Structure formats: C-alpha cells, structure tokens
Amino acid sequence: MLGLIVSLIVVGLLAGALARLLVPGRQHMSIPATILLGIVGSFVGGFAGYLLFHKDSSQGFFQPSGIIGSVIGAIIVLLIWERVGTRRGAPVNR
Fold first, then answer.
1. Is the dihedral of CA 46, 13, 5, 40 positive or negative?
2. Which tens digits make up the pLDDT trace of 48-88?
3. How many domains does the chain have?
4. How far apart are CA 31 and CA 84, in angstroms?
5. 3-state secondary structure of 50
6. How many C-beta neighbours within 10 Å does residue 79 have?
C-alpha cells in the first residue's frame, strides 16, 4: 500500500511537471499542487485512454503509454484550470 502511494506521488510529480513545462505561460503553482495536477491528470488520461482504446491496467500500471497518457491528461487539466482561473479572477466591466 505504501509503495502504491509513493509511486502515485512520483508519477504525479513527473506528469505535472512535464505538463507545466509543455503548456506555455507561467503557472503559479506549488510543488504539492503540481503533484495533485499530475495525479488528477493521470486519472483523466487513464479514463480517456480506456474510452478510446478499451484497454485497462491488466498489463501493469507502469507502461510508457500510461506515462504519456498521464502527461496528456495533466495538460488537459492544466488548460481547464487556467481557463477557469482566468474567468473567475477577471475584472467586471461596467
């Protein structure tokens, strides 16, 4: 159980950091927020991969396609987060 948690944090950090590097602009996020971004992106990427290809984790969790899916999912989550954050913080024109 502890190994799963540690591996989830490591994959989350890698996927979140790669997503932040690939998305242009500056993101004001801490390291825990980057880990959370990667973990959520991993679930989004895994779910999207299952919907598109109808494959699951029967061959194991650590596969190159799973890491790539995690990064793609983290990019999607980051873009959505930036879009929602800019709308919420935008000044109102009167």
1. negative
2. 877 777 665 565 555 666 778 888 999 999 999 888 876 65
3. 1
4. 20
5. helix
6. 12
